[in-house]
Amino acid sequence: MTQSALFWNPNGFELDALGSKKYLRATDGDTPYISVSIRMLSIDTPEVHYPGNAKPARQDDKLKQLADWIAQDKVPIHADLAQHLHARLDTGSAGSLQGTQGEQASDYFKQLVDVRLSRPNSNRKRTTYIHVGDQAFDQYGRLLAYMAPNYSRTERDTMSRLDKATFNLLMIKSGWAASFPIFPSLPKHADMNLMREVGEAACENKLGAWSNPHMLTGYEFRMCVRLYDISSKLQQGKKLSSNEKNAWISRYCVDMTTREIFYPQDYHKVKPYNRVFIWSRDVKQAVAELNLFPAG
Fold it and tell me: Three-class SS of residue 228?
């Protein structure tokens, strides 16, 4: 059998697995189209379903119980973070509030897309511009990206940076999303400053989800659900290692205005709109590339 005489084995690179995706159509023999969901970078909205497909309201009793355990000092949490979270959990409706705000955020986003993709004097919708981050896909096969209306060059020449903002930024501006940049997929410096500016305005003026003093950001809600699960095991007398006890919170937090880096349980010491998060595996790289130094 005749074989190729070319011995070439390029290293190439491997993208994260996309998992199972719906086939949509094909335009020719080598160009199929599939459906891909997008996880919008640098933002986090309240949850509509968590954990899994469960409604957040189903966590009400558990989070109230967590508040009681916190008051009794039965939870692996630092005292100052416990104080920050306790009043929010003690309402007995932390999950219901999360779900309600999640639905409101979803409704707002749909309205925002409808308005921003509309063309003046035309029934045709604009296309969208997608900018992918340093990591292309997350563990669920979602594309990690910034998403914006696609404007013509003529339009862009007459627009300010805010006028042509991404939907990511506009959700922060509305108050229905908390800023949630995670190293290394960070916005450019000018975009980071604009994100911080609109985030501060939304938070300080109590827009969107910030209007309720008992709100939990999406990432706080998820970590509290995990904390309940761990605390429940401890109440049952199960022996957990230090790593297992602290598995509910693992991202370090940086104050983007001072370059100080805080331990995971100290994230609340940074204003919500100044936070940049770093996975523990990326801390060494982030400290070197961003010139960070320990808080305190």
Answer: helix
